[in-house]
Structure formats: C-alpha cells, structure tokens
Specification:
The chain is mainly alpha-helical. It has helices at 3-18, 30-51, 63-81, and strands at 57-58, 61-62. It has one domain (3-81).
C-alpha cells in the first residue's frame, strides 16, 4: 500500500474518532461508493499500463493514459448523474 493510501485510511480513523454520531463509513452513500470504485479502476488501468508497456501510442500518449482519460471522463459524467 502506498503512503497516500495509508494516510487516507488514517484520516478515516481520525474522522471516526472525532465524529459525534454513527461510524463515518456508515454515512457514506452511493456517490462515495462509485467514486471509490472509480479510483480503483483508474489505478488498475495504470498498473496494467505499467505491466504491458510496449511503447505503442495514440496521440503521443500510451494506451493506458488514453484509457485513464476515458475512464475519468466517464466516471465524472456518472457521478454527475447520481
């Protein structure tokens, strides 16, 4: 797990400690779940791009970057429609 993800999990712990009410993750809704899934899919696209690097490009970008842009734009549209 990278440092940023560890820091984020630590922030969830702090938010849960100082939040007066039910657990913080119980208040998460569909928007937060879709946003987290979008982050996982984007990370997976970049990991696949790192593993399958063949120096093929589209518009001077690797196919992994093009896929990430499409996933990001599609995810933003999906989040807007929620």
């Amino acid at each position: 797990m990278c440092l940023a993800q560890t820091f984020t999990v630590g922030l969830l712990l702090l938010a849960d400690v100082f939040y007066a009410g039910e657990p913080v993750l119980n208040t998460a809704g569909r928007f937060e779940a879709v946003a987290a899934l979008l982050g996982l899919i984007l990370a997976a696209a970049f990991v696949i791009g790192l593993l399958e690097r063949k120096n093929k490009t589209f518009l001077r970008m690797g196919y992994d970057a093009v896929a990430a842009i499409l996933i990001f734009v599609g995810g933003i549209v999906l989040l807007y429609l929620l």
